[in-house]
């Protein structure tokens, strides 16, 4: 297969634009809080810049490394073993922010194993399914075996608890199985199983049930700091306040101790307030371009592994963006999912950029 002169430039520059935009908005959303809590306005943004620079460097490096390296069973099984170990380790280590999503090293460095699980799951499924494309109708020998690793990952991540990331992994798994040729009937069965598992996780966990009630019966109480509707109320206030053109960079008001997680889960609300509808549509347009170029790379790849890997990487990022923006706009119940490449979070931006590095390498060989 002939190599291109270079990577997909549209994909590359769209990624860089999203990262740069994210760094600017993380600084805007976090500066006042960082000054208040750490006495230095650049504390949070500075960490994000460091992770973004490191991630971009790794993205460039991986864009030159032949993706065929990841087809090796040794690589796949080693990556799976390390990821499962880290996910399990996070559950037994002391909680951080009342959850077991992070592993802390020396008290100064933390990372989220769930972020590692996303690209590892995609590469595993791409490798496993690409060798069984003619056996996708076999429920026990192919589909159940393919679903085993995603089930283990999702179970460990739900236990953290992080239902949002587990849903992203489940969604990507279903989409990749379907792309590989899984019959419709198995897809429908899988959806029914997910819904049956999801229902008790929503009903029998009080704080999730409260969020579902708020979503189904909106009752905005912006003054009740501990109420389940507080996050989404403040988010909608920020979005509505931005109007068409927004208040201007750094001029948002909701981030000033009103909007929770203004630099992470609800950063899109801050974008809408400061950049308005115009700025919000620009962000959406960048994700649309990313989607088109990523899927174009996938469907132009003749190698089944490359096609599945490119598709999985692209859909992982798009599903996260869809969930995040939908939560900010109250189109889905509140859940903690970052906006890829934009939200604050070192592990997230690093592994997202690393995944895109693999996608860029695949684009070199796509017809």
Q: Tally the helices: what do you get? A: 12
Query: How many whole angstroms does the radius of gyration measure?
Result: 20 Å
Q: Beta-strand level of the residues, as a percent range?
A: under 5%
Number of domains: 1
Q: What does this protein structure show overall?
A:
The structure is a single chain. The chain is an all-alpha fold and 367 residues long. It has one domain. It contains twelve helices and two strands. Strands 1-2 form a two-stranded antiparallel ribbon. A hairpin with a 3-residue loop joins strand 1 (103-105) and strand 2. The longest helix has 33 residues, at 267-299. It is globular.
List the helices and strands and how they pair.
Layout: H1 9-38, H2 43-62, H3 73-92, E1 103-105, E2 109-111, H4 113-130, H5 139-158, H6 163-179, H7 184-203, H8 206-216, H9 230-242, H10 267-299, H11 304-328, H12 346-365
Antiparallel strand pairs: 1-2
Helix pairs in contact: 1-2, 1-10, 1-12, 2-12, 3-4, 3-5, 4-5, 4-6, 4-11, 4-12, 5-6, 6-7, 6-11, 9-10, 10-11, 11-12
